[in-house]
């Protein structure tokens, strides 16, 4: 195995809740209130829709706000990798990745391991350069049982909800997360920091029309069939863990341009995969409302 870059799950498509559009000569992220499933191919600056996108839209009325999924790994932290990430705004390359305790930072002398005080307390990541960044790999359909779709996000709401659900489902199923029939769901909420406008984030639950008990029963049956066929889930998790640990940063050189475009769109400071919401009018800091909301945001920190 080549050393120096992470061996990550094979990706055959993308899941997004937004897209990049051209406005006044600039390519900027535009948020949405539904999922979009695309291939990894771009044509004329737009990601080509995956056939599963239209198939799933036929099965549910209105907007695509639920996607039936399974997971590759039994370990929740292998399916969702989340950390504080600082990317070079010019080329999108990761320069610092941390977990709130320690970080790996690229410098002139190579990769250094340093303390990680989180974005709010880090001078290196000031100005919004460092953000929580999550990558979720899921299986959709049965065409490729090792080919995953990736959902990238800088939304704290999405990362927190997905991390909690993954760990909970793994616990209640007796470590059968990889066998559970689940569903990605798009949920809405309003917060002080969104100025009471609706924001959208990604959550995880049992499939529509099913129950947790039924999902666990189905998972046990699938686990028994896999074991009878010789499927070794433990070995798969070990191989994945070794692959992720093979490099300092997960993103490859081919991914960095898409990361920069979606999460670091020039001067907009906005994120196409953060909490999706219509742009709210921000009151001037000098106004009474502005001062009160600034104080509320400071007290709330990153709780929203």
From TrEMBL:
Chain segments carrying region Disordered: 263-291
Top-level division of the source organism's lineage: Bacteria
Pfam families attached to this UniProt entry: Gp3-like
Name under which the protein is recorded: Phage capsid protein
Origin species: Paraburkholderia denitrificans
